[in-house]
C-alpha cells in the first residue's frame, strides 16, 4: 500500500514538470471552426520560421460567436471569424474598451454538390438556387422537375450545413436576400463529411458546403456551376479568387485586438499571416484573396486602422471594392 | 435426478425437473447471448478502427505534435499528455471527496431529512449532462477563479463530472460490507474511524475501484465538458498545469471533421491510442482490485 | 440500515476518557460531512450558472416586443371589428419584428397598412412601463416555450417550443435503455453466476472497455455502419436517425448497468443461495427468485445511472441523431406518429446545446440564451426523473428488507 502511494505521488509530482512554469511568448487565437485550419496552418509555418522562434501560438475553436465573446472580454488576441463582426458584438467590445483591426484572410467557396449520377443539374442560376432553398420552398418544392421542367421526376433530398454555422449564415444571406430564411426541411449536419456521404449515397440529393470538401471528394460528387447572370461558372480556386464565382464566395476574417499589437509576437504573427498571401489557406482547401487585398491589408494593420468595413457589405460584392 | 414421493399425498406434486432444467439451460444461453451481443459490437468497432488506424500507428502518432499542413506526419503528443494529466488530476481530486461523501452517508449519517436531501442531491448530480458541468466549469473555474482554460480548470471540471459516479459506486460497495465485520471490530474496542479504515474500506475497495474504473473511462472519453471549457485547441507544445491544453477525444473529433482522407486515418490512430491508455489505466485498477479482493474476500 | 447491537454511540462513549482520540474522530466525521455537503454546493453552482442566463432568456426584450406587437395587433383588429377565432388567428401571427410579419398581419386587417401597425407598435413600446414589459416578456416566453410545437430558434422565423427537443431526448433514451437494460443485466448474470472465474476475469474488463470508447466514436460508428444497415431494411430511413443513435448508446451504457449490477449480485450472501439450492431450486430459479430480489437496490441504482447517462449524452447524439428537431405536422395522429417514430432524425436537448456552444450565435443574442434555457430545462427534467426514481426505489427497497 505504501509503495503504491509513493508511486502515485511521484507520478502526480512529475506532471508538474518544468513545462508548467515555462513562460514562452504566447499568441492566443480563438473562433470559427472554418477559419481554424487556416490559422493553424499559418501558425505551423510561423513557428518554424525564424520570426516565430520561441513563440507559442495556440488556436482554439469556440465558434465564431463564442470567439467574439472571448475576444470582447479581452481573453484572446485574435478572433477567427467566418462572418464579419456584428453591431451587437462591436457594442460589447466597445463597452470593454476593446478595439480591433479587421483583416480578410481567405475565401471559402460555397459549393453546391450533386450525386455523381446526376447529369441533369450541371448548372443552376442563382434564382433557381433561391427558389429551391428559400423558406417559401419548404414543403412546396420537393421534386427536381419543379426547378426546371426538363429535369427528371425525382424527389429532392437536401443536405446542408448546420443552422448554427457561418456557412449556413452566409448561404441564408444569399438565398434570402438578407430578409428571408432558408427552408427548414433539409438535413443539417455540422460535419461536412456526413453531407458528402449523404449526397454520394442518394441519386437525387443536393447539398452545399465549402470547396475544400468537394475537392477531396471529386470522385464521388459533381459540383454545380452557378450562373450569376454572366454564364455558368464552375467553382474552382481560380474562379473563386478572381471573383467570377459569385455570389457564393465568402470571405473569411481575423480580428486582431489593437492593444495586443503592441506585443512583438502578435505583430510578427499577423504580419506573417498577411504576407503569406493565402498560400497556407490553399494548402488546407481554402482560396487566397486577390493580391491587391493583402497589399491593402498590410498598411491598414501597421497603422492600426480599427473598425469593421465588411459588416455592412452585401454578400457577392467584389472584395476589392470593399477594401481599399 | 429422480424424486421419489415420500407419502401418497405427495404424488400430486410433480417436480417437473427436466422441464425446469431445460428452462434453465435456455436461460443460460440467453444470458450468454446477451453478453456476447455487446462484445460483438465491440469487436466490429475495434476491427474497423484498427484496420484504419494500425497502419498509421507509428512513432509519430505518439511523439509528434498535431499538424494541419502535414497530417501524414502529425501526432497526438500534446493531446495525449493533456489527457493523461487531466485524468490523473481528476481522479486525485474526485476519489477522496467521493469516497469521503460515501463514507459519511453510509456510516455516519443519521436517518433524517437532511440526509435524504444529501442523497437526493447526489443522485440528481449523477444525472446532470456532462455539458452542463462544462458550463459550470467555464463560469466558475475558468472565469470566476481566473484560471483560464488550463489543465487545472479542465481537471476540476471533470472531477465534478465523475464525482457522483464514484459516490454511487462507493456507497453500494460500502453498503455491501457485512455488519458482522463492523460488529466484530467494535467488539474488539476499535473506534468508528478505525473500524472504517481498517475493515470496512478494504473490503469495499474492489467495488470502489469498479466505480473508479467506470468513472475514469468516462473522464477520458467524454469530450463535451472540456469542449465547453475551451479544450478544442491546437498547440504544438507539451501542456503544463497552468497552460492551455487539449485532450485526445477532442483532437479526434477535430480530425474526423476535416475533409482530407489523411485526417480520417489519423483519427483512427488516435482512437487506438486512447484505448491503449484506457486499457493501461483499467489494468492498473483491476490489478489493485484483485489484490484487495484476494486479501479481504475469498 | 440495521440497528447495530454495539452502537457507534456506545463506542464513542467508551472514548470519553481519551480527548485526543475523540477529537480525531470528530474531525474525521466533519471532513466526511464536508465531502457530502460539497455536492450541495455543486448543485447550487449549476443552478446559479444556468439560471443566470436562463432567466435572461425568459425576460428577454424579444419576447416583450412580441407581446407588445400582439397587443397592438389586438387593438387594431378589434377596432376594425374582428373578433373570435379570426381575431385569435391574427394575433398568433404577431411573433417578431420582421417586415414580413408586419405585412402579413396588415393584410388580414381591413384599412390597416404595415406602417399604421408599426406606428401603433412603436407607440406601445414607448408608453409601456419596464415592469409591464418584463411581465409581458415572461408570459410570452413561457407560453411559447411550453405551448408551441416547433423548435426553430436559429432560423429567421423563430419558434421556441421545447417539446420537439424533449421528445428527441426521451425517444433516444428509451431506445438505448431498451438495449442496455436487458443486455446489461444478462451480461451481469452470466458473468457473475455462470461464467468460470477465468472467463469472468477475461470478459469483465472487455465489457468495461466499452464504457471508455469516446462517445464521438460511437456516434460515427452509428452513422457509418449502423445507419446503412437500417437503411437497407427500411429504405426511407434518413441517414441520421434515432434508432441507430439509440442502439449505439445502448451498447455504450451496457457496462454501466452490468458492472454495478455484478457488484450488487456478488454482494448477495452465499447463505441465501445455498438455502435456495437446498430447497431444490434450479439455478435459474435461484437467480430469478433469490438473487435478483436481493440485489435489487444495486441493480436499480445501475439502471438509474444508465438512464441518466442516456439523457445526458451529448456527442453521440450530436453526430448520429441529427440536428433536425422533430416536426409534428398538423393533426393529432400525425403528431403521435412523429413522436414515437425512431426512423427519423430527432435533435435532442444536449445536441442543441452542443450545436449552439460550438456555433455562430453572437453571445447575448436570443439564440445564445436559448442554450441556457434548454440547459435549465434539461437539468430540471433530470431532477424530476431522479426524484421519481428515488421514490420508486425506496418503495422497492422496503419490500425486501
Descriptive overview:
The complex is a heterotrimer of chains A (about 325), B (about 300) and C (about 400). Chain A has about 325 residues and is of the alpha/beta class. Chain A folds into two domains: about 1-105 and about 250-325, D-Maltodextrin-Binding Protein, domain 2, CATH 3.40.190; about 110-240, D-Maltodextrin-Binding Protein, domain 2. Chain A contains 14 helices and twelve strands. Chain B has eleven helices and one strand. Chain B has helices at about 15-55, 60-65, 75-110, 115-125, 130-145, 150-175, 180-185, 190-220, 225-230, 250-255, 260-295; one strand spanning about 235. In chain C, helix 5 (about 100-110) crosses helix 6 (about 115-125). The N and C termini of chain C lie close together (about 10 Å). Chain C has 18 helices and no strands. Chains in contact: A-B, A-C, B-C. At the B-C interface, helix 1, helix 3, helix 4, helix 5 and helix 6 of B face helix 1, helix 2, helix 8, helix 9 and helix 10 of C.
In short:
Chain A has 324 residues and is an alpha/beta fold. In chain A, 37% of the residues lie in helices and 21% in strands. The longest helix of chain A has 14 residues, at 2-15.
The CATH class label of the largest domain in chain B is Mainly Alpha
Radius of gyration of chain C: 28 Å
**CATH architecture label of the largest domain in chain C:** Orthogonal Bundle
Low-pLDDT parts of chain C are none
Q: Which structural class do you get from the secondary structure elements of chain C? A: mainly alpha
CATH topology of the largest domain in chain C: MetI-like fold
The CATH superfamily name of the largest domain in chain B is MetI-like
Report on the biggest sheet of chain B: none
The CATH top-level class label of the largest domain in chain C: Mainly Alpha
Q: What structural category arises from helix and sheet content of chain B?
A: mainly alpha
Domain count of chain C: 3
Order of helices and strands of chain C: HHHHHHHHHHHHHHHHHH
Total number of distinct structural domains of chain B:
2
CATH superfamily of the largest domain in chain C: MetI-like
Number of helices of chain C: 18
| Overall strand count of chain B | 1
